[in-house]
Amino acid sequence: MGDDVTYSGTVAAALEGTLLQIPSIAFSVERDAEGRSDYGIAAGLASRIAEKALENGVPPGVMLNVNVPRGTPRGIRITRQGTRTYRAAAVERLDPSGRPYYWIAGSDTTPSQEEDGDHAAIREGYVSITPLHADMTHDPSRDILSAWGLSLP
């Protein structure tokens, strides 16, 4: 969910399908405190969402990222990719050969409080369906970068 979709193998697999123009959906289920997931509800939901995607189509270049909360969902929300506030420190360490490397230590993440974000939906017990696409270009920044007047030396 949220910013972590960039680390998700499930989302990466859906992205590959999307790049091949195959309607693709990433499904994930929230774990309980013991790390267990109940896939029964998610399986039925996956079947219904896949049927709708095939029946109605998914916009070109778009994949769906579906997250199912633990327990019985209260409903479904169409969400946006949420964000997190990251707090971590890069700690310099030495490998066995004495060469330095950096380790991300003490990382703590807090989901931001976007009302329409995927984190909020899951926190409130709703299934989150987020349409994602591969083009991560931030168009407003293109004009800003063009104004830098960069050229080759």
Structure in words:
This protein has 153 residues and is α/β, with parallel strands linked by helices. The protein has one domain: Stationary-phase Survival Protein Sure Homolog, Chain: A (3-Layer(aba) Sandwich). The chain has four helices and six strands, in the order H-E-H-E-E-E-E-H-E-H. The strands form two sheets. Strands 1-2-6-3 form a four-stranded mixed sheet. A two-stranded antiparallel sheet has the order 4-5. The N and C termini lie far apart (42 Å).
Keywords for this entry:
single chain; about 150 residues; alpha/beta; Stationary-phase Survival Protein Sure Homolog, Chain: A; 4-stranded mixed β-sheet; two-stranded antiparallel sheet
The poorly predicted ranges are: none
Largest sheet: 4 strands, mixed
Average pLDDT: 90
Report the order of strands and helices: HEHEEEEHEH
Helicity range: 25-40%
CATH class value: Alpha Beta
C-alpha end-to-end distance: 42 Å
Count helical runs: 4
Strand order of the largest sheet: 1-2-6-3
- Tell the overall outline: globular
Q: Let me know the CATH homologous superfamily.
A: Survival protein SurE-like phosphatase/nucleotidase
User: How much of the residues is beta strand, in percent?
Assistant: 25-35%
CATH topology name: Stationary-phase Survival Protein Sure Homolog, Chain: A
CATH architecture: 3-Layer(aba) Sandwich
Structure class: alpha/beta
Number of domains: 1
